[in-house]
Amino acid sequence: MEECLKFLMSRRSIRLFKDREVSDELIRRILDVARYAPSAKNSQPWEFVVVKDEEIRKRLASIHRYAYPLQRAPVTIAVLCDPKLSPDSYLADCANATIYLMLAAHALGLGTVWIQSLRNVKEINEIIGAPEGRIPVALIALGWPAEKPEARPRKELSEIVHINRYGNKMK
Length: 171
Fold this sequence. Notes:
By secondary structure, this protein is α+β, with helices and mostly antiparallel strands. It contains seven helices and four strands. The chain has a four-stranded antiparallel sheet with strand order 1-2-4-3, sandwiched between helices. α2 packs across α5.
């Protein structure tokens, strides 16, 4: 169990990637795990668009200034959500699938970073050819890590945990 907890705490956001291909088999394994993420009423409102094409990745990398890792990584995975399948919880459901995707990649030795995409829905959908009504909840840069960032500081539990009622801080 302790190994599993250490594994979860060792995942880092990777923004620099080696110039090395990620095989279709590894991508398939990662997406196979992602589809097991929990969703409300098992709605599974997600779809994935795997982008290897350099020109498309370049366009995605230009959606905002923090999207540059998409051009550096050999693969981008867009996590699309269909709000009609899960109207009340599609964002949470697809966030769960995104985390499963990132943890599966980490387990296989790959690196990822979650690129915020909710302010660029229309533009992203146009670039990847997604139908109207799909929401790109995340763009994931995926590849072999070319960096090993240290853990960034975390808030103490006493700052963020309340017992029974808000304001009753954990000691």
